[in-house]
Amino acid sequence: MAEGLKRRETPLVDRLVVIGPGLIGSSILRAARATGLAHTLVTTDAHSGVRERARELSLADEVPDTSAEAVAGADIVILCVPVGAIASVVAEIADHLKPGAIVSDVGSVKGCVVEKAGPLLPKSVHLVPAHPVAGTEYSGPDSGFATLFVNRWSIITPPEGADAEAIAKIAALWETIGANVEFMSAHHHDRVLAITSHVPHLIAYNIVGTAADLEEITQSEVIKFSAGGFRDFTRIASSDPTMWRDVFLNNKDAVLEMLGRFNEDIAALARAIRWSDGDALFELFTRTRAIRRNIIELGQETAEPDFGRKKG
Length: 312
Ligand code: NAP
Fold this sequence. Notes:
By secondary structure, this protein is of the alpha/beta class. 47% of the residues lie in helices and 12% in strands.
């Protein structure tokens, strides 16, 4: 078995349901299959083409046509749909869940899941949201792979008063498929991810858009000389448009707060360049270099440019 995945002697649960077998959902299913996480794997998707592909790839044992059918008898349901679709899927499945079922998700924003989806669920069902901090710029059922979460963090954001046993099960699920688990409030998660993920994506979308709009620089020059830093931005800026639109619409406060701070700091950098303040530039660039070294030391990156982003 692939390194980092933990084969279980007995399944954690009987029925595990993944709604939305895209990059993240199909990776969970592949890892669940490899580790024996559940006795029966079930998946479905709003799109018939995705359901068909899930059947062709044998991602699950059962691929029913609707979410309502899929969740019947489920022990754990993981919603792997875009953040903006989570509440509507919860509304579809709420009446079909058995008492004691656990509903989780993998959305990149957490406050909105607790606020919008929580009230739609019956009291007998446990909501334990999570966010695996792992991914690539690809989407769809073909893009997933079993080792996507190995040595990555999965942040669990249990609402106040959440059931301890349900939280432990979701933690065990992520640990089985190789992730390290961290707990925090949904609010804190959204502020941390705003600066570590959401604002960087916004900057990448912006810089690639600006380069594309600059009339005196041709498209062929942009491509030809992209190795000068731009290429790394284009990778990030090719990430799924639906997913990222939903992230920004659902994490407005934290993103706008971090963007305000970013704007102030970039104005200071512009000032340093205008006034030839080389010391200020050198001091910042030295500090940022050390941050990358720390990330590499913590095993979250290597010096190779495509660490953790290739199919394993
Ligand atoms: P993806 O590859 O596009 O997969 C999402 C799947 O959900 C698609 O098959 C989509 O079907 C389906 N879907 C959309 N609306 C649905 C609905 N109402 N009911 C049922 N299925 C529906 O996206 P992903 O990258 O796996 O992202 C899924 C979630 O993971 C998002 O919430 C995202 O924030 C989170 N996440 C992503 C990453 C990353 O790096 N990509 C990392 C961590 C967390 P269609 O194709 O027909 O729309």
